[in-house]
Amino acid sequence: MGFWSEQRVVVTGGTGFLGRRLTEALRARGCAAVAGLGSADYDLRRVDEAARLYRELQPTLVIHLAAVVGGIGANRERPAEFFFDNLTMGLHVIDQAWRAKVPKVVIAGTVCAYPKFAPVPFSENDLWNGYPEETNAPYGLAKKALLVQSQAYRAQYGFDSIFLLPGNLYGPGDNFDPRSSHVIPALIRRCFEAVDEGRDRIEVWGDGSASREFLYVDDAAEGIIAAAERYDGAEPVNLGSGREILIRELVQKIADAVGFTGAIAWDVSKPNGQPRRQLDVSKAERLFGFRAHTSFEDGLRRTVEWYRTVRASQLLST
Is 170 a catalytic residue? Predict the structure, then answer.
């Protein structure tokens, strides 16, 4: 409480999926002030808007979550937007924070920054040993460039900016829009729609052989808070669960949780994305005591039940 009671925290992307949970958790810790910001508040792609943020809010700590994100389809359709918007937002957030003499900035990177064929589990030491998977490389490289900026500002100016690499997030409140959602909410929605419409099969991209690691949203918020309070190093740090799951197993778990009993049709003409993803999470525990506590089974159950309730409410209102 002593640390947080003195902090005026700005969370960019604070109206988003992770941002809402993070701002709630910060308020529960008794922060002097917490501002969860969305794009309607400040357009961080514009340097004058980023400068206005610091001038008006005068934070002591900034947590930069704002990002243009989506699944494989969205990354393929909008690579220029994913690169430019994510890079410019981060560049302005870090540079204007230094100019405003903000004591600390926390940057949320992405697991998509890792090389396509990084050894599993992904160690922070392997971050630069290859090119990211092609479908999300523009997004991953834009985020990874912010690590370079963060380290450069530390080296030249002594600026305290830390860089975290979260795994794929999921949980209640996630984005279920089929045009931009990630794999878990997309599959949950697809299974519910199949059940509601009496269909006996669903189609899934790829062949199911790829793997992913998933981090429950509340665990991600706790990891960011722990790093903000206890970590001041230059090196990037993974935030994850340390558990890998094959996409074919994931689809079956989601189908079982929703109650879909039909066939799974794999569209092998569509990409798998990165072949494997699992993070080495030992550094986060060693440096600032973070370990994810939510099992994937519990987290998936909560997510499915949340969406079941939301969907039922939406159907009743139509």
Answer: no
